[in-house]
Design a protein that fits this description.
The complex is a heterodimer of chains A (209) and B (241). Chain A has 209 residues and is mainly β. Chain A has three helices and 13 strands. Chain A has an eight-stranded mixed beta sheet with strand order 4-3-8-9-10-11-1-5. In chain A, strands 2-12 form a two-stranded parallel ribbon. The longest helix of chain A has 6 residues. The chains are: A mainly beta (209), B mainly beta (241).
């Protein structure tokens, strides 16, 4: 005892989501029809403003094999760079048709996951800076003890990416490329491919946020 | 004092959590980064988080005893689980989305990849969800899950546990974990629990029998509180803007 009785609490420790994470977070993918309203990977359902995009990819382990049991969530700003959150401190009107959040499971056979969403606008950084458009992404799975946080940037925003304070904070310059999604067009649809390498030579940058 | 200006979330104490690479839990070996995580100064992206509203949810979403029942009640021990969600500074976490999932009384999951011989229960699904109230309180009702075997070492058994997920006020608070039940002898031998470095933190995942809240001739009760990261207040320069 030091006579100082202030006691801060410790954050509840993380544990893996396990192989059956879908039961609770994507019950339809596990074949469970318990809920009327289900969360999913479609952020376009209320027809928000902005350019429609498809974000897709796979998550690979240290042997280069896709994780077929991984669960991903994204969190992003609307087309004008406003987060639909009470904690957004910009005094700007948010798009009321955009929740900014979605959840996807990789396909049990191929390991491919995707989100239908909009390309986000730029958001403010610290101390008056501006961040390049990005999507915050977290992955949970069997074998992952604490959710891994990363960010998705866009290959066609090279100028903004070059000034982005978070990308520029990555001291190992070649690793910055692991956060840039590749653009293509498929049947008129704009697709950004973002593959995540958990471990090895091409390892994706993960953040302690 | 004028209006509160919130700063960043307090740094995550990595010693309070499992490291990524934990060889006793074998799947982590090829699913853990080799590089150290890169720490960043939080921005608006990390301190914001989506809103959910209770109206999106059905009346039985937090009642796992009834929410998948078809021709009768599920078999097993009837329990209520309740508690409070607060941040590390002791403030209640309001309107957080708490989602839970679990095996049935046999230790069998309703999932296409679970082939354990323990039987499925046609009246039990195993998922539920709820929002915390103004006091950070949550409550749900379920069947106590059974332990189940898994292939880590060949004769590995998980203690009875319920998985849970929280989405609260800031993306930085995003958390998935599992809680266990007081007195379960399997807790001491579980390699997944042992990934947590400290005894105190392992104990923080054990729900406590709450005897005075048992309901006579109906259900027993467990108490389990959850702590999330908290934000500091800003009294001088605000670097978030």
């Amino acid at each position: 005892m030091n006579g100082w009785n202030f006691q801060e609490l410790h954050e509840t420790p993380s544990q893996t989501g396990g192989p059956y994470v879908h039961i609770g977070l994507l019950p339809k993918q596990a074949g469970i029809e318990t809920f009327d309203y289900n969360f999913n990977n479609d952020l376009l359902k209320n027809n928000p403003e902005g350019q429609h995009i498809r974000l897709e990819g796979q998550v690979f382990d240290g042997l280069g094999l896709p994780l077929r049991d991984v669960l991903l969530e994204i969190w992003q700003a609307d087309a004008n760079g406003v987060y639909p959150s009470d904690a957004d401190f910009q005094e700007k009107q948010e798009d009321e048709n955009f929740q900014g959040w979605g959840r996807a499971g990789a396909d049990f056979k191929t390991g491919i996951w995707h989100f239908n969403t909009i390309k986000p606008g730029a958001v403010p950084g610290r101390k008056g800076s501006t961040q390049a458009p990005h999507i915050n992404l977290i992955i949970f799975a069997r074998g992952i003890n604490l959710g891994l946080n990363t960010r998705v940037y866009f290959e066609d925003e090279a100028e903004a990416n070059a000034k982005d304070p978070i990308l520029n904070g990555i001291e190992w310059v070649p690793r910055r490329q692991t956060l840039i999604a590749k653009r293509s067009e498929e049947n008129g649809e704009i697709v950004y491919r973002f593959d995540i390498y958990i471990q090895g030579d091409k390892e994706t940058v993960f953040f302690d946020i | 004092m004028s209006k509160i200006i919130w700063g960043a979330y307090a740094q995550r104490n990595t010693e309070d959590h499992p490291p990524a690479y934990t060889e006793g839990y074998k799947t982590s070996v090829l699913r853990s980064p080799k590089n150290a995580l890169i720490a960043i100064g939080e921005t608006i992206s990390e301190v914001t988080s989506p809103r959910f509203s209770a109206e999106q949810f059905g009346p039985k979403d937090n009642d796992l005893i009834l929410n998948s029942a078809t021709d009768g009640l599920p078999i097993g021990e009837r329990i209520i689980v309740h508690g409070y969600v607060r941040d590390q500074f002791g403030r209640p976490v309001k309107n957080a989305l708490l989602e839970v999932w679990q095996a049935n009384a046999s230790g069998r999951y309703r999932h296409p990849n679970d082939q354990f011989i323990g039987s499925l229960d046609p009246n039990f699904g195993g998922c539920g969800r709820m929002m915390t109230d103004e006091n950070g309180f949550y409550i749900f009702r379920t069947i106590k899950p059974g332990p189940y075997p898994w292939r880590n070492r060949i004769n590995e058994w998980r203690p009875a546990h319920i998985h849970f997920s929280l989405l609260a006020d800031g993306w930085a608070q995003r958390l998935i974990s599992q809680f266990y039940f007081e007195g379960d002898p399997l807790i001491d031998s579980c390699p997944i629990i042992k990934t947590i470095p400290s005894e105190d933190q392992r104990r923080a995942l054990i729900a406590i029998e709450d005897k005075s809240n048992f309901i006579e001739a109906d259900s027993r009760c467990y108490r389990f509180d959850i702590t999330l990261r908290g934000r500091r207040k800003t009294y001088f320069e605000n670097e978030l803007v």
